TrEMBL record:
InterPro entries: Aldolase_TIM (IPR013785), IMP_DH (IPR005990), IMP_DH_GMPRt (IPR001093). SUPFAM superfamilies: Inosine monophosphate dehydrogenase (IMPDH). Pfam families: IMPDH. Gene3D superfamilies: Aldolase class I (3.20.20.70). Belongs to the IMPDH/GMPR family. This is Inosine-5'-monophosphate dehydrogenase. Residues 9-259 form the IMP dehydrogenase/GMP reductase domain. GO terms for molecular function: IMP dehydrogenase activity. GO terms for biological process: GTP biosynthetic process. PANTHER family: INOSINE-5'-MONOPHOSPHATE DEHYDROGENASE, INOSINE-5-MONOPHOSPHATE DEHYDROGENASE RELATED.
Length: 319
């Protein structure tokens, strides 16, 4: 992992990965990653954001690829727990999805998104009973003493489930959260961020900063936000992430499995491009170079008429 970011920080679209001599074929790439004790065959995670979509279909599309599908928080605790039960109750067909890694009970691994609210412990208790594999705990404040106590209490509830906490951008805050027992930190624009929006936010630099704290502790980093192309998934992993959230992709696609397939293919191609057989190789070998906005435009298709956009390619508007 090479730290070449400028002082102001860099987003994914402000960098390119340097190609390397490679005999790594995309179909032979090993995408395995770990989130605490949870092993995954694919470093993709996501939750259904489109209310018109079939939530179960979206979550299963990620789970069947070997990644971690997430059940979003619902108003009623019992509704979210019921969705976890439904995913866990879906038969695992390894003949159809041979890359799927399952939980210890041979069911799909499934996570749940939770906000740190007054009923958080009741919600977590219900999710644990439902068999949740991971809890993504989102904070609505800085890591104060009160928030720290709540994080520790949630961790104590989880038994064998994994705890990820975010969204964080300050390495010092991430270090504090990891010391409380969290297995992973979610890197992205924090609730009180000085950056007003995501458009120019330095997502890559944020991932790098949190990885510098988490990696020596054998903890994980989850990249959230700023992912517009499948190539950005490669950059996030190269920057130190262990898991990348792709919820925004899935919200735009009618067939979630097709989108996941396209992102998976782009990730494999990018790893072959950099000569990386594993995610760990990618972190250790990848080299970044900074580019300008004009360089970004030149690096993508231009002066051509696009009749149908691929699921792993989402246009981004920048000022």
């Amino acid at each position: 992992m090479t730290d070449t970011h400028a002082q102001h920080g860099l987003g994914y679209d402000e960098t390119l990965l340097v190609p390397a001599a490679s005999n790594v074929l995309p179909h032979l790439v090993d995408l395995k990653t770990k989130l605490g004790a949870l092993e995954l065959a694919n470093p993709l995670a996501g939750a259904p954001l489109n209310p018109a979509a079939d939530a179960k279909e979206v979550i299963l599309a990620i789970a069947q690829s070997g990644g971690l599908g997430l059940v979003p928080a619902t108003e009623k605790i019992e509704d979210q727990a019921a969705q976890v039960v439904a995913i866990k109750g879906t038969a695992v067909d390894l003949a159809v999805s041979p890359q799927t890694l399952t939980a210890a009970d041979e069911t799909y691994a499934v996570g749940a998104e939770v906000w740190l609210t007054a009923d958080v412990q009741d919600r977590v208790a219900a999710l644990v009973e439902a068999g949740v594999s991971a809890v993504f705990l989102y904070l609505n404040d800085d890591v104060t003493e009160e928030v720290a106590a709540a994080i520790k209490a949630v961790k104590d509830q989880l038994q064998n489930a994994v705890l990820a906490v975010g969204t964080l951008e300050d390495p010092a805050a991430a270090e504090k959260v990891l010391a409380l027992g969290a297995d992973a930190v979610i890197a992205g624009r924090s609730v009180h961020s000085a950056w007003p929006d995501d458009i120019h936010y330095p997502f890559l630099t944020t991932v790098m900063g949190l990885a510098e704290v988490a990696t020596p502790l054998n903890k994980a980093v989850i990249a959230q936000g700023g992912i517009h192309y499948s190539g950005d998934v490669v950059k996030a992993l190269a920057g130190g992430a262990d898991l990348v959230m792709v919820s925004d992709y899935l919200a735009k696609e009618e067939v979630p499995a097709d989108a996941v397939f396209q992102i998976d293919g782009g990730l494999r191609a990018g790893m072959g491009y950099t000569g990386s057989h594993t995610v760990v190789d990618l972190k250790e070998k990848a080299q970044f170079v900074q580019i300008t906005d004009n360089g970004l435009k030149e690096s993508h298709p231009h002066d051509v008429e696009i009749t149908k956009k691929a699921p792993n390619y989402v246009e981004q508007e920048r000022d």
